[in-house]
């Protein structure tokens, strides 16, 4: 069977999620490692940084095969900060949803459910901001991928 010249839409979206999240983590790790004095923890951060750099470099090699790429210009810092906030809100929703499935105590389940609803509303606010600003153009795959590349390249270029 011949290799397709273009990635499928569903795998492109998974690629986007992996690159965007890992780029945000990489950027944060590189900023934080500068403050770490304890040798063993610093070494763990450096190992993590190197692993994420390898992952991102390998994954972005597939971006040219994504369905129809085009260029987009947005501030790297704005993309990073908004993406970090969006990723944090998304993780909060997932974590609360998982916690509820593990909860046996009714009063705790009520509190977690209330927090989950608040997290969903928070995520919506952040998503709407990122969508309006063109940082997370969820209906334009090419722009979304270009933002990923911008974020990934900024994270890879950051010194540590």
UniProtKB/TrEMBL annotation:
Highest taxon of source: Bacteria
InterPro entries linked to this entry: Spore_coat_CotF-like
Keywords: Capsid protein, Virion
A Pfam match: Coat_F
The protein, known as: Spore coat protein
Organism in which the protein naturally occurs: Peribacillus saganii
């Amino acid at each position: 069977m011949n290799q397709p010249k273009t990635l499928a839409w569903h795998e492109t979206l998974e690629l986007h999620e992996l690159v965007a999240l890992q780029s945000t983590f990489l950027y944060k790790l590189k900023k934080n490692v500068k403050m770490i004095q304890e040798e063993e923890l610093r070494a763990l951060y450096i190992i993590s940084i190197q692993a994420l750099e390898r992952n991102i470099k390998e994954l972005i090699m597939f971006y040219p095969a994504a369905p129809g790429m085009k260029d987009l210009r947005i501030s790297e810092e704005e993309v990073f900060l908004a993406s970090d906030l969006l990723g944090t809100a998304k993780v909060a929703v997932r974590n609360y949803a998982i916690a509820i499935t593990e909860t046996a105590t009714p009063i705790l389940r009520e509190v977690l459910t209330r927090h989950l609803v608040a997290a969903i509303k928070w995520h919506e606010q952040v998503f709407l901001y990122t969508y309006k600003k063109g940082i997370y153009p969820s209906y334009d795959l090419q722009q979304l991928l270009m933002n990923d590349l911008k974020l990934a390249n900024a994270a890879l270029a950051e010194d540590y």
